[in-house]
Amino acid sequence: MSSPAAAPVKPAAARGSRRPRGGGGGIRVAPYVFLAPFIILFLVFILLPIVLALYTSFFQTQRSGLGFGGANDKQFVWFANYAQAFADSAFVESFGRVLLFGVVQVPVMLLISLVLALLFDSAVVRWKRFFQLSVFLPYAVPSVVAALIWGFLYQPKVSPIVEGLASIGISVDFLSPDNVLWSLANISVWSVVGVNMIILFSSLQTVPREMYEAARIDGAGEFRMALQIKVPMILPALVLTTLFSIIGTLQLFNEPMTMRSVTSNISGSYTPNMAVFSSTTLGGDINIGSAMAIIIGLVTFVLSVSISAVSNRKKGSAK
Asked: Which of 45, 75, 140, 182 is 20 to 30 A (C-alpha) from 265?
């Protein structure tokens, strides 16, 4: 009599192994734990202030009792604060001033940063680490300190630069109404050339070296390789630095605010951010200041999107 066939024995589950609940892959908590600090900081310090500024910009505070214990009533006024902001000639002129500032300062600064990055990436310059650190050091100086240093160098009676130029027959007033904007641009260029150079130089390090070797075999020199290979390859980094520079230009505040103690040719509404500061902190009208801040944010957003669209269109046409 033959014995019945033994039933197949299922392999025992490994010790400590657990099946995910619900038959799926389970919820992984670790990524959300790591993202939580960023999300909290983003909501508290970026998104919440924007929402509060947008909300406040649609209201006006009606005060009674001549400020002596009277009631303060908030009234919804739609876009009246925005209309009042655009009617403020000093605020509108501040936009024209920083746009003129950016049209000159941003290309000059990016050109200097690009030339330095290309030089440091080439085989021409020696002691690259030393010169890279020297160029980057001004970025480590706080903007307020940089403005104070250059304010001293701009002073007619104490500046060695002014005295040196006067000794060769060149009379210049860096703090005159016609020159003070470009004196501020010089401070900005001196401060941020280093960090933009580092961004562009880091992007150049990702370019395959085989392309350089092939170009050298074809007889290309450093200048030709820079124009035809390096610059096109780091175009995304150039767009990124351009966007950062435009945002920084529209947010110009520390340098002109500090230079006000040196010259009277910088008004309280010299830049858009200074106009917001004057309206809120000095003027005590947070509603108008919020409307101005929203306008600055919208202008920055529009310019950034426009530059990105132009850059993407050029990439598409190049393909």
From this structure: 140
The whole-angstrom separation of Cα 75 and Cα 61 is 6
**In angstroms, rounded to a whole number, what is the distance separating the alpha carbons of residues 251 and 245?**
10
Token pair in block for residue 99: 């746009």
φ, ψ of residue 288 to 5 degrees: the values are: -65, -40
pLDDT single digits (tens) 86-122? 998 999 999 999 999 999 999 999 999 999 998 888 7
275, 292 contact by CB (below 8 A):
yes
Neighbours of 57 (CB within 10 A): 24
Q: What percent of the chain has pLDDT over 90?
A: 33
DSSP notation for 222-269: HHHHIIIIIHHHTHHHHHHHHHHHHHHHHT--HHHHHHTTT-SSS-TT
